[in-house]
Amino acid sequence: MTTVLLIDDSRTSRKMLTEMLENHDFKIIGEARNGEEGYLKYKELKPDIVTMDITMPVMDGIESLSLIRHENENAKVVMITAAGQKEIMMEALKRGAADFITKPFDEAEIIATLMKVEQQE
Ligand SMILES: [Mg+2]
Predict the structure, then answer these.
(1) Which residue ranges in the chain fall short of pLDDT 70?
(2) Structural contact between residues 50 and 38, judged by C-beta atoms closer than 8 angstroms
(3) In angstroms, what is the span from residue 9 Cα to ligand 1's centroid?
(4) Which fold has domain 2-119?
């Protein structure tokens, strides 16, 4: 089973992602409400995949992505973006994001993206 850490300050988003992913072959092993907490949980839990919101208090998703990739250069971090965030997406790619999923969430798209990321070396 592929293990996932959810990093998102929205409880609703975390709940929706948990339901969608657990309908398939993914196991949520942790949740965090900001980038700093997420980074600490990444080090502790070593998930296969991270889903990372961008706008969060304390530490945003771009900075947390950088820390996680510094910790593990092969870390698979999927960014959660909304329409109109092209510049942020470019910045995330530069910092090693594996892929993107967009809000509003589409279960089929999310599962396809995470399965693709899981297969990446
Ligand atoms: Mg947010």
Answers:
(1) none
(2) yes
(3) 5
(4) Rossmann fold (3.40.50)
